[in-house]
Amino acid sequence: MLVMSIQTHSQASQDLFILHALGHKRQGTFLEIGANHPIVNSNTYTLESNYNWRGILVEVDSSFERLYQSHRPNSRYIIGDATKIDYNKLLGDANMPRNIDYLQIDLDVNTRSTLDTLELLLDQQVLDEYTFGTITFEHDIYTGDYYNTQSRSRQILESRGYVLAFPDVTVFWDGKRRAFEDWYLHPKIVDMDYISSVKQTGSMYHEDIIRLLQHKQACLELCEQTEIKSSSPDCNETTTRRHRRPLV
Fold first, then answer.
1. Distance from CA of residue 4 to its chain's centroid?
2. How far from 165 is each of 80, 81, 151, CA to CA, in Å?
3. Are 186 and 192 in contact (CB under 8 A)?
């Protein structure tokens, strides 16, 4: 699957979601908690290698350290337990902006590390100081509702102003439909008109989400090129206005 001739490296199109939501932004920033392999199924490799993003990779498995050094030159990494990191210090030491483009949380729901990281660290530390334009939060609800991770994470993030644009993003794996992740946008960074025009209330396959976003982008670009106001459901904004708010 390609976006602007760029191949996705994510497991479920997360990098394409980020690129569409942020207008194929270059020189963006990210915090990737649960980074795993620096290329294979990575949500940030395409962003760094093709769009010159920089960020922080957090991973407990030290076997990836040499690969990070070889393949992720723009980014810092930290090998350690995600539930024991001082994220405010980490972000400050890396000179990250207050508006960060992407946050990934992909840990183990069954050990409570996913919820602990969000509750005890990010909600009580980082979210007072930093805003993330896009978030992919892995709740793995298909494995069971461990510690009410799905509902609790939604309460926390929505109370902080994040809009759940795509709930229960789904993959087809091992012969079954599996809802595993929520995708969020923040109107401080992504324009609310755009969010409202793509927001869904039900579960979708990740491939269908990307098709929806591609269609939305194509329509917006056509409307802008023709400089005509459209009242159609697909082009329901003033066409001379960009759908993404400038980043500050």
1. 19
2. 31, 29, 15
3. no
Residue where the block lists tokens 């392999």: 37
Phi, psi of 45 (to 5 degrees): -65, -45
Domain ranges, ordered by start, for the chain:
2-211
Residue with token string 């050094």: 69
- Comparing CA positions, the residue from 30, 48, 31 lying closest to residue 39 is 48
Location of structure tokens 């093709």: 50
Give the pTM: 0.90
User: Which H or E element spans position 68?
Assistant: helix 65-71
User: Could you read off the pLDDT tens digit of each residue along the chain, which spans 248 residues?
Assistant: 444 457 899 999 999 999 999 999 999 999 999 999 999 999 999 999 999 999 999 999 999 999 999 999 999 999 999 999 999 999 999 999 999 999 999 999 999 999 999 998 899 989 999 999 999 999 999 999 999 999 999 999 999 999 999 999 999 988 999 999 999 999 999 999 999 999 999 999 999 999 999 999 888 878 877 765 545 555 554 333 333 443 33
Strand 29-33 to 6-7 pairing:
unpaired
Chain centre distance of CA 160: 16
What is 2-211's CATH superfamily? Vaccinia Virus protein VP39 (3.40.50.150)
Question: Where do the DSSP E strands lie in the chain?
Answer: 2-3, 6-7, 29-33, 54-59, 76-79, 99-105, 131-138, 163-173, 176-185
Of 11, 160, 33, nearest to 107 by C-alpha is: 33
Contact 248, 190 (CB under 8 A): no
Alpha carbon distance 137, 186 (integer Å) = 14
